[in-house]
Write a structure and sequence with these properties.
This protein has two helices and eight strands, in the order H-E-E-E-E-E-E-H-E-E. A hairpin with a 2-residue loop joins strand 5 and strand 6. It has a four-stranded antiparallel beta sheet. It has a four-stranded mixed beta sheet with strand order 4-3-5-6. The radius of gyration is 21 Å and the shape is elongated.
Length: about 140
C-alpha cells in the first residue's frame, strides 16, 4: 500500500494555515474604531464619538414623534416621507434598533464594533458606519 500523506505535506499544510491565521490577525489587530458616522437621507453626516452612549432618531418631518424614546436626539429630514430609523450607540458598539422599512436588513446587521463595518437602510436612505484609523484594505508588497 502507498502512503498518500507524507510528512512534508503535513508541514506544508501547517505553514499555510499559520500564514492564513497571521494575515487574519494582522488585518484586524490595528483596526481602532473611534467614531460613528450617521448619514441621513438628505446627505447630512453626523459624527458621534464611540465612547458616548446616545440614541439617535432620524425621522421624516411627517413622522409621529410619540413612538420615539424620550432621551433620543432627533434629526428631522425632509428627503423621505413616513420614515424613522433609531440608532443606539452604547458600550462601544452602534446598532440600528428600529426602522420603518419593510425588509429589516439594517436591523439584522447587528452590533457594529470594528472600523469599516456599516449598516445601511436602503429604503429609508440611512447609513451607519464605524470610522477609525489603522485597518488594512489589502496587504501588498
Amino acid at each position: 500500500m502507498k502512503k498518500y500523506i507524507k510528512p512534508a505535506d503535513i508541514i506544508l499544510t501547517a505553514v499555510f494555515l499559520a500564514a492564513a491565521i497571521a494575515v487574519y490577525f494582522l488585518m484586524y489587530k490595528n483596526t481602532a474604531p473611534d467614531s460613528i458616522r450617521i448619514t441621513t437621507p438628505d446627505g447630512t453626516t453626523v459624527v458621534y464619538p464611540l465612547g458616548t452612549d446616545v440614541t439617535v432618531a432620524i425621522v421624516s418631518s411627517d413622522y409621529d414623534l410619540s413612538n420615539i424614546p424620550a432621551d433620543a436626539q432627533i434629526i428631522t429630514t425632509t428627503a423621505t416621507s413616513g420614515c424613522c430609523n433609531i440608532i443606539t450607540i452604547k458600550d462601544g458598539a452602534a446598532r440600528m434598533e428600529y426602522s420603518t422599512c419593510a425588509n429589516q436588513v439594517c436591523i439584522e446587521s447587528g452590533d457594529l464594533t470594528r472600523a469599516g463595518q456599516t449598516s445601511i437602510c436602503l429604503p429609508n436612505r440611512v447609513s451607519v458606519e464605524v470610522a477609525g484609523e489603522g485597518g488594512y484594505d489589502a496587504i501588498t508588497r
